[in-house]
């Protein structure tokens, strides 16, 4: 799944280039568009968050190779297995915060994001989209002049963090297999 999403999202850089190109053209020839800078930031967040798991899958992430390159495969796998635990712990905390922040941006001020999403899904299936909209409170907006809703980008971030967590677990499994002597 990360490979497919990564291959699709890598073309998202062209969307960001298009937004920034329009920003330059509109500032030069027309009235400057207020939405372009923030939309370019949103494109970059989606590009980074959804492309990161694919980057780890390919092994193209940055490493300090001062000692690591001279180590044996077994020692590298042991070190990677240890460090991926820290990554998984960090990603779990980040995912929890992302889910809470997404619930807040949809109008949940109770601090219980999972019960909010459960009631939102229940309202959608029992009463339709209108009932789900009634469950939501005042949705969070950006403080900029353009004032877009923030829940779409927060949802993309949660999906990206979840995919990164899945990829980290996959890397841990690969490292354990390498420690046991299997070829991968």
End-to-end CA span? 19 Å
Number of domains: 2
Helix count from the secondary structure assignment: 8
The overall strand count is: 0
Indicate the proportion of strand residues. under 5%
Low-confidence regions: none
Q: Which range best describes the helical content: under 10%, 10-25%, 25-40%, 40-55%, 55-70% or over 70%?
A: over 70%
Give the averaged pLDDT, no decimals.
91
Structural class: mainly alpha
Order of helices and strands: HHHHHHHH
Largest sheet: none
Described by the principal axes of the CA atoms, the overall outline is flat
Radius of gyration: 21 Å
Topology:
Blueprint: H1 2-9, H2 12-29, H3 36-58, H4 65-68, H5 73-105, H6 113-127, H7 129-135, H8 151-179
Helix pairs in contact: 1-3, 2-3, 3-8, 5-6, 5-8, 6-7
Report on this model:
The chain is mainly alpha-helical and 184 residues long. The chain contains 8 helices and no strands. The longest helix has 33 residues, at 73-105. The chain is flat, with a radius of gyration of 21 Å. This is TRAP transporter small permease protein. The chain crosses the membrane at residues 7-25, 37-56, 77-96, 116-137, 149-169.
The gist of it:
Helix content is 74%, strand content 0%. With 184 residues, the protein is mainly alpha-helical.
Keywords:
cell membrane; mainly alpha; 184 residues; 2 domains; transmembrane
